[in-house]
């Protein structure tokens, strides 16, 4: 086995996985799996630049991750940055900061690369299961973008589009520096319109209605799953490979649409960093399920982070 450290830095969160990877058996033995909400993409959709305070939050998390990587003696480290970094004019500041802290240069990957990593991370462990038919459609709802990947034993088609829970919140729900609370019907309609247009783009490349199993990744999907399961606190083992029917997603989305910030914050399984963006994320998820015709979504806690780890092995 090879001891690897994978870092995934997205628009909303930065995550670390340290594991032993065995390509022969398809096994990952985890030593650390960490996540921090740093909101690197704060304001990027509006300004086109990474904000100084967002960079500092991200660098502080990198310093903590460097300690964990050192403690576990990882032989290989790979740092992947996604939507917010792709969009930013000053991404060189980000690259230099990460290189100084972790000793590796962050790779600002394309949407297609992001999609491939997500597919590998989510589906490698599904091989041999007869209860989940192929092909899979993997949907990774991030902060700034959403990736759609269809495949069986490998990727057949992929597309990344610029809809994400942070991007939609900042574009449609910010009022004088605060998130609209609760959402107006007009704001919800604006988000749905953007998502519908993005799904049209995705469908030009990815056959959205041809997959037998819809697999959902990332914080929006796992949080909705936690709510569907009635969890009092976040439990990744209970969430992993749970199945959420479309009707339940509709119920939860409607509940979130009508909720205040305080009501969302009081949900036991809700991470504080997702309180202001979960409603936009739920609207994206519901729209995706309705467009694909999926009656349920299979939720995976394994995603792009695991795909990055496998790329090192």
| Oligomeric state as shown | single chain
Which residues sit in consecutive blocks of at least 5 with pLDDT less than 50?
none
| Form type | globular
How many beta-strand runs?
A: 13
The arrangement of helices and strands along the chain is EEEHHEHHEHEEEHEEHEHHEHHHEH
| Average pLDDT reading | 90
User: What class do helices, strands and sheet pairing give?
Assistant: alpha/beta
First and last CA, distance? 8 Å
Number of helices: 13
Spatial ordering of strands, largest sheet: 8-7-6-11-13-12
- Level of helix content? 40-55%
Strand content is: 15-25%
Describe the structure.
The protein has about 325 residues and is an alpha/beta fold. It is built from 13 helices and 13 strands. It has a six-stranded mixed β-sheet with strand order 8-7-6-11-13-12, with helices on both faces. Helix 2 (about 50-70) packs parallel to helix 4 (about 90-100), helix 6 crosses helix 12 and helix 8 (about 220-230) packs across helix 12. The protein starts with a strand and ends with a helix. The model has no long low-confidence stretch (mean pLDDT about 90).
């Amino acid at each position: 086995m090879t001891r690897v450290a994978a870092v995934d830095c997205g628009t909303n969160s930065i995550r670390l996985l340290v594991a032993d990877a065995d390509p022969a058996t398809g096994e990952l033995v985890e030593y650390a799996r960490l996540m921090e909400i740093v909101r690197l993409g704060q304001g990027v959709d509006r300004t086109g630049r990474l904000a100084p305070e967002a960079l500092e939050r991200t660098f502080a998390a990198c310093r903590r991750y460097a300690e964990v990587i050192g403690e576990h003696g990882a032989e290989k480290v790979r740092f992947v940055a996604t939507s917010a970094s792709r969009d930013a004019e000053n991404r060189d500041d980000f690259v230099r900061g990460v290189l100084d802290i972790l000793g590796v240069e962050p790779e600002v990957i394309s949407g297609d690369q992001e999609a491939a990593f997500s597919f590998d991370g989510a589906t490698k462990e599904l091989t041999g299961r007869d209860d989940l038919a192929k092909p899979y459609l993997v949907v990774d709802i991030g902060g700034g973008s959403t990736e759609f990947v269809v495949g069986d034993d490998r990727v057949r088609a992929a597309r990344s589009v610029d809809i994400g829970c942070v991007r939609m919140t900042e574009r449609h729900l910010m009022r004088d520096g605060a998130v609209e609370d609760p959402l107006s019907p007009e704001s919800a309609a604006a988000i749905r319109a953007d998502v519908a247009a993005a799904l049209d783009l995705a469908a030009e490349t990815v056959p959205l209605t041809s997959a037998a199993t819809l697999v959902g990744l990332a914080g929006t999907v796992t949080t909705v799953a936690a709510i569907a399961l009635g969890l009092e606190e976040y439990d990744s083992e209970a969430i992993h490979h749970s199945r959420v029917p479309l009707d339940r997603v509709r119920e939860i989305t409607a509940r979130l649409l009508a909720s205040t910030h305080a009501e969302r914050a009081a949900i036991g399984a809700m991470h504080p960093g997702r309180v202001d963006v979960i409603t936009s994320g739920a609207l994206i998820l519901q729209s995706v399920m309705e467009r694909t015709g999926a009656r349920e979504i299979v939720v995976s806690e394994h995603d792009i982070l695991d795909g990055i780890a496998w790329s090192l092995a």
